[in-house]
Specification:
Blueprint: H1 5-31, H2 35-61, H3 103-125, H4 131-157, H5 168-175
Helix pairs in contact: 1-2, 1-3, 2-4, 3-4
InterPro entries: Ferritin-like, Spore_coat_CotF-like
Pfam family, one: Coat_F
Family: Belongs to the CotF family.
């Protein structure tokens, strides 16, 4: 079963990015100092490896696992999120070569890797005619989304990702302007 041009090109881009993510996550895991962060990165790397291997397998013989929609049972409660800015530390580039990253840099890199993976896999899925390939890419996008949220929770709990807020009446005024039809 041949793939269409869009499918082949999109999957090539997704796989190239996934290889980069897997390689970088190994480096991040080795450099992280917090054991919880190391474990999180290890689990996310293993997840990326599974996604990569499933996609490669399917593109080689078209008999890979028939994907079902991914279901995640872990749902965070809004009560666990810390809202508001609490004197956020300034963020600037390092500006000089370094051989060691610190945990906050690693968290930001892992978070952005997942966000980009979610966007890129969902966009790639929209170009696929093959329903199994399409579902695999959507599953990978959903997995990246959930992994990004786990990194956000880790960072938010440590004050590394603060959630700006607006006055309650401003948010309500804006959102309540939409009415049921």
């Amino acid at each position: 079963m041949p793939f269409g041009a869009h499918e082949a090109l999109e999957v090539h881009e997704v796989l190239t990015a996934k290889v980069c993510m897997i390689d970088h996550f190994l480096q991040y895991e080795m450099q992280a100092s917090d054991p919880t962060l190391k474990d999180l990165i290890r689990r996310h790397r293993n997840s990326a490896l599974r996604n990569y291997n499933e996609l490669v397998s399917y593109t080689h013989d078209y008999t890979g696992v028939v994907p079902n929609e991914v279901q995640f049972s872990q749902v965070a409660s809004p009560d666990t999120i810390q809202y508001g800015l609490r004197n956020p530390a300034p963020v600037t580039p390092i500006g000089a070569p370094t051989t060691q990253l610190y945990d906050e840099q690693i968290c930001r890199a892992v978070l952005h890797s997942h966000k980009n993976s979610a966007k890129n896999n969902m966009a790639a899925s929209l170009e696929c005619a093959d329903p199994y390939l399409r579902q695999m890419l959507m599953n990978t996008a959903n997995t990246a989304n959930y992994n990004a949220y786990e990194v956000f929770e880790y960072m938010n709990a440590r004050g590394l990702y603060q959630v700006p807020t607006m006055r309650d009446h401003t948010a309500k005024t804006m959102l309540h302007s939409y009415q049921p039809f």
